[in-house]
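Hi there,

I know you've been waiting on this one. I reran it after we fixed the sequence typo, so this is the corrected version. Both the input and the resulting structure follow.
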Amino acid sequence: MKTLNPLAAILGLALATQAAPLQIGAWVGNASDTSQESVSGYYPQPSKENVDAFVKLQGRNVEYIEYYAIWPASWATVEGYADIAADNGSTLFVTWQPNGYTAPDIVAGKADAYITKFASGVKSYPHEVWLRPLHEANGGDWYSWAVGNSSKKNTNENVAEAYRHIVTIFKNAGVTNVKWVWTTNASNITGGNPTSFAGTYPGDTACDYISIDGYNFGTFHTVANSGWASSWQTFKQVIGPAYTALANIDKPLFIAEFGSSESGGDKAKWTRDAFASLSTTFPRIFALMIFSMNDANGDWRINTTEASLTAWKECVAQYAPVTGIAARTALSAPSFARASGLGRIAFDLESAGAVKVRVADLQGNLLESRDLGNLPAGSHSLDLGRSHGLRLVSLQAGNRTAGLRLTVD
């Protein structure tokens, strides 16, 4: 029997050996040639060649492929990468960057014509696409829309309004195949107006998923080479503060960018510790998206050393790729229980037995407990009702326990 470990830990249920369902995404970089990556000004795009090389390198497919589209990148350009992702059995996750625009610019409609045209292109696409505009807005000067930008034109309020403005254009155009992602940076950086982890959150009706970008820079940055000094941090230290700050936002959460430097510590151990912490410290995280590239801030590739690659491959191998799961559920279910995405679950019993169901919130508070009595062997279903939040569900039949996480409308 397969067990969802985070749920079992929360509800005090017996643990089995199967790791919790987790999805893996990546900015794939160029696994076959690192000599021209962004340290020399070249960013390798997620071409089929690069996607195939990354998948072969890690020994596992990816559920999500990341792509960075800088305004005014056309949908026609993005669509090519969406097709590559679809052909790979993945969803394209687009970081949609309004470089050069401030939040007031967007609110004032200065990019409306471009946004509207892009929305029209997405609308006709036959697959789901994830978009995240205005990411890392609690960062400093590196983005024109950041609250911490030295221009001081952006505030928490107008960045959130700009996000809603973009989403509204898509909704008014009748676009239904986009999932909206909001991202906070793992560190609040102030060079302009005060920043906070959740300050730019646009509200529950404007986004589908929330996420965190965070990196362990190790000792890569020094005052001499960067004007500031970084230090080694564990995954918990990197992600923890933002994760805690987002506790009251009832949306599915994932890590949209992350990675570790080799400088100043043991990257292989860092990776193993990161994955181990998911069930104990970060049970809300349903996906990890690695930024596998050697750039000006560090070498984040999964294969910086043989030891680091081995650690990464061993960690992701614990989680079978999710196939045939509706993207809006964003989470897989073990074979013992299946989620319809509408608050209904179906489960199979190999033999007759007493079945109990427990439903909890993300903090582990028990919401509902049902004793279904003795059920015969075969297929069964249960209607839990719709909800607007993420629920943790446990099914127990005899000494077997299956857990799944449901995001339902």
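Quick highlight: Confidence is low (pLDDT under 50) at residues 1-20, 324-340.

Best,
R. S.
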